[in-house]
Amino acid sequence: MPLGTLQVLLVDAKGLDNNDFMADMDPYVLLTVKTQEKQSTVASGQGSAPEWNETFLFTVSDDVSELHLKIMEKDNFSADDFVGEATICLEPVFSEGSLPPAAYNVVNKDKEFCGEIKIGLTFAPEPERSTNVPSGGYGESEESYGGWKQSSYGEE
């Protein structure tokens, strides 16, 4: 499993079920990668076709395989309502490096289609760390493995 940084571009959503009968809904998204959770801003009054254009960064470590998106509707006087969710497999972005914004299906609590959400993904792998002991060959800097700068020779 690659280590690095996952950048998620939350673009917009379309065709969401409006479950706020009094007015246009005020949706937001909870983005989760393993135990890391981020929240978008609330798209106030944007109803079933909200736009966010927000970027989120996640640290990717061992056995991360998916991004979970949970769309919620902000309520002022009661608990926020669940609108729908989408789960995105991250294997393609790990191998490709980036995926342009694309629409993913959103399903409700009964696993029925209830709209789509557009997400772009970019993965920046962490540089591989060498566990080898430097050989002292050409191209090695003296600071990288200790050397004359750390020696007390010649000091009095």
Description:
Helices cover 4% and strands 46% of the residues. It is mainly beta. The strands form 2 sheets. The protein has a 4-stranded antiparallel β-sheet. A 4-stranded antiparallel β-sheet has the order 3-2-5-6, with no helix packed on it. The longest helix is centred in the middle third of the chain and has 6 residues, at 91-96. It starts with a strand and ends in a 31-residue tail after the last strand. Mean pLDDT is 86; it is low at 140-144.
Question: What does the secondary structure layout of this molecule look like, with pairings?
Answer:
Blueprint: E1 4-14, E2 27-33, E3 36-39, E4 51-60, E5 66-73, E6 81-89, H1 91-96, E7 98-107, E8 113-125
Antiparallel strand pairs: 1-4, 1-8, 2-3, 2-5, 5-6, 7-8
Q: How many β-strand stretches? A: 8
The ordered string of helix (H) and strand (E) elements is EEEEEEHEE
| Helix content estimate | under 10%
Mean pLDDT: 86
First and last CA, distance: 52 Å
Query: Major sheet: size, sense and barrel closure?
Result: 4 strands, antiparallel
Strand fraction band? over 45%
Strand order of the largest sheet: 4-1-8-7
| Uncertain runs | 140-144
* Gyration radius, rounded: 23 Å
Number of helices: 1
- Which structural class is indicated by helix and strand composition? mainly beta
The shape, in one word, is elongated
From the structure above, extract its key features.
156 residues; mainly beta; 4-stranded antiparallel β-sheet; 1 helix
